[in-house]
Amino acid sequence: MAKQPGLDFQSAKGGLGELKRRLMFVIGALIVFRIGSFIPIPGIDAAVLAKLLEQQRGTIIEMFNMFSGGALSRASIFALGIMPYISASIIIQLLTVVHPALAELKKEGESGRRKISQYTRYGTLVLAIFQSIGIATGLPNMPGMQGLVLNPGFAFYFTAVVSLVTGTMFLMWLGEQITERGIGNGISIIIFAGIVAGLPPAIGHTIEQARQGDLHFLLLLLVAVLVFAVTFFVVFV
Predict the structure, then answer these.
(1) Which residue spans traverse the membrane (predicted)?
(2) CA neighbours within 13 Å on the CB side: how many for 85?
(3) Pair 169, 128: CB distance under 8 Å
(4) Can you tell me the mean pLDDT for 141-151?
(5) Does 237 have pLDDT greater than 60?
(6) For residue 40, what are the β-bridge partners?
(7) What is the rounded distance in angstroms from the CA atom of residue 232 to the CA atom of residue 237?
(8) Is residue 136 part of a domain?
(9) One domain for residues 170 and 222
């Protein structure tokens, strides 16, 4: 039986409408992510923190700041980013290889996948708590950074830990919502958005170094290739 052109048109129109809704959801979620990256942890002097990060140019701290979309330099509630989730996912994946019970869960299909996802969430929470405690207790004691924390004490530690943990768990939830209601893998999209947001200042600083002769052209080319490779891996792998 021949297909009716009207039905094909309605089906295509419905598909485009669904695609539009999903794209709008992703855009809205990324706007929320960017707004959250500007909400600071209470009790931090952002000017002192910016001075500290200026001294850390070229180190792994600057790279971590780029992956968080600049949230670290602003002492944002999203300063931990989605890294605790990524670490928890890697740990759980390794455990599914060596732990018989988790290996069996992996073979149970959708129900097993849901349980593994739940364990990953628990692992994310634990790692986020430990990392946020380390950050909260380390900030007031950083050498040469007096005044970074306005009022050190239990109130600051508690507020900072709660803020950082809540920020990470919210990003994890937001990533899952993008995966379910948007397009692509939500966690990868959030990581990519953070990288893109942090690229302009990083590129500007790198070009300035190359112009002044502080950075060799071949090294600049290598950095460009690495940035492209990381971006390709995050988006397409």
Answers:
(1) 23-44, 75-98, 119-139, 154-174, 186-203, 215-236
(2) 24
(3) yes
(4) 71
(5) no
(6) 76
(7) 7
(8) yes
(9) no
Q: Which domain holds residue 194?
A: 183-237
Letter for the amino acid at 47? A
Side-chain half-sphere of 166: how many Cα atoms within 13 Å? 13
Looking at the structure, tell me whether residues 58 and 91 fall in a common domain.
yes
Query: pLDDT, tens digit, for every residue of 32-62?
Result: 998 888 888 888 877 777 676 666 565 556 6
Question: What's the pTM value of the predicted model, to 2 decimals?
Answer: 0.75
In this structure, which amino acid lies at residue 228? F
Q: Are 121 and 137 in contact (CB under 8 A)?
A: no
Token look-up 């990392």 returns: 131
For residues 60-82, give the mean pLDDT.
70
Q: What phi and psi, each to the nearest 5 degrees, are found at residue 40?
A: -80, 155
Provide the CB-side half-sphere exposure for 89 (13 A, CA).
10
Q: Which residue do the tokens 């009716």 mark?
A: 4
Cβ atoms 113, 203 nearer than 8 A: no
Q: How many CB atoms lie within 10 A of CB 135?
A: 18
Which residue is associated with the tokens 């792998």? 237
Cβ count within 10 A of residue 104? 11
Q: Would you say residue 2 has pLDDT above 60?
A: no
* Cβ atoms of residues 182 and 228 within 8 Å: no
Q: Could you report the per-residue pLDDT of 171-203, keeping only the tens digit for each?
A: 999 999 999 998 888 888 888 887 777 777 667
Cα 115 from Cα 119, distance rounded (Å): 6
- Tokens 């995050």 appear where? 234
How many folded domains does the chain comprise?
2
